[in-house]
Amino acid sequence: LRFNFSNQQKSWLRLGLDSSFSYTRQEYPTYEDNPATLSGWAYLAAPLNPVRQQNGELLMKPFYSVSIPFFDSPVARQQYNEFSLNAYRMLGSTFAEGNFLKHFYLKTEVGGDLMLSYNNEISDPRLYLSNIPPGTRQILNFNVNRSRIINTNTLRYNRNLGDHELSLLFGQETQQETQKTFKGIGRGIAGGN
Q1: Which strand (E) or helix (H) includes residue 5?
Q2: Which residues lie below 8 Å from residue 166, measured CB to CB, with a gap of 6+?
Q3: Which of 81, 90, 111, 117 has the most C-beta neighbours closer than 10 Å?
Q4: Does the pLDDT value for residue 160 go beyond 80?
């Protein structure tokens, strides 16, 4: 969602407002699902490897071996694990631009950026995760609240010199960013698969 507004108040003054709002929902893989890792290799394995048993249940470890016990089925990971992100982001700024002397333009802009991100990770105890003991259910919540205030000031000089144009730009920007995080982990929690 976006809203932009600009108005020429006087011949020498222009005011404006820009704003946007976005919402994102995303499901993402675990670190182990990265093809650069050993267990992530399962995603690149031949598609002819069986995914289900004869009774229709998923094979949890179709690539199982004693030396490498953590090749989980990618289908089982998607069905039984939940790794999701919900994020809200709001951006807004207001500006004023004035032509206070001939050929000079001064613009000042004040803006803000607010992001709220909520990660939820629920792992099935039958599947491997490198950071928890085997057979352990884990629920992890990781929330990030980030805000930023930005102030930008620019001074432009534009002048036509016959067939040529001279343009100079001087600018200054300051930013202040704050981030707060909250992380909660529960392990060994009972629950349905």
Answers
A1: strand 2-10
A2: 157, 158, 159
A3: 81
A4: yes
Q: Taking a C-beta distance cutoff of 8 angstroms, is the pair 17, 35 a contact?
A: no
Q: How far apart are CA 180 and CA 24, in angstroms?
A: 19
Q: 83: closest CA among 138, 10, 3, 134?
A: 138
Report the distance separating Cα 139 and Cα 146, nearest Å.
23
How is residue 136 written in tokens? 């352990």
Give 161's DSSP letter: E
d(CA 94, CA 19): 9
Beta-carbon contacts of residue 39 (< 8 Å; ≥ 6 apart): 32, 33, 70, 71, 72, 128
Rounded CA-CA distance 51/77 in Å is: 12
Whole-number Å distance between alpha carbons of 142 and 118? 6
Measured CA to CA, the distance from residue 176 to residue 171 in angstroms comes to 17
CA angle at 174 for the pair 102 and 148, rounded to the nearest 5°: 125
Contact 75, 93 (CB under 8 A): no
pTM tops 0.70, yes or no: no
> What's the CA gap between 149 and 177, in Å, rounded?
7
Read off the DSSP letter of residue 31. G
Tokens linked to 34: 């990265």
Greatest mean pLDDT range, 73-77, 174-178, 183-187: 174-178
